[in-house]
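Supplementary Text 2. Reproducibility record for the structural model of the 123-residue chain.

All settings were left at their defaults, and a single model was retained for analysis rather than an ensemble. We include the record here because the model underlies the residue-level annotations in Supplementary Table 4.
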Amino acid sequence: MPVFEPTDGKAITSRLEAGALLVACLCSLRCPKCEQCWPEFLAESEARREMCFVWVDVDDNADLVAEFADLSRLPLLLVQREEDVLFLGAITPERSAMAKAIETAKPKTPLEDPHLYEFLLSG
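Retained model, structure tokens:
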């Protein structure tokens, strides 16, 4: 399965413990942009199977997204390796925008850790 949901705890934990990069998309399927984002996120996950792609519906996972400072601009993409948040920001729902965010993700300045990685890892 190329895209996990937060409830796929054991599978996510296994991937993250093996060193996979976390790529999480925070969306709401009630949002038209987010609805457009789903097939693009799925396609990107198919192309990057070595990474751990997680789809987080903010409506269904309020406890998971509580530490995110700004959920007013969805979709949000989080790219993280262990404690290093490499990218966290709003993106347009095109695959090219996701690919660019993933490919150029690196810690430019310390980004606030929303603790999603730890939550998912605790499965």
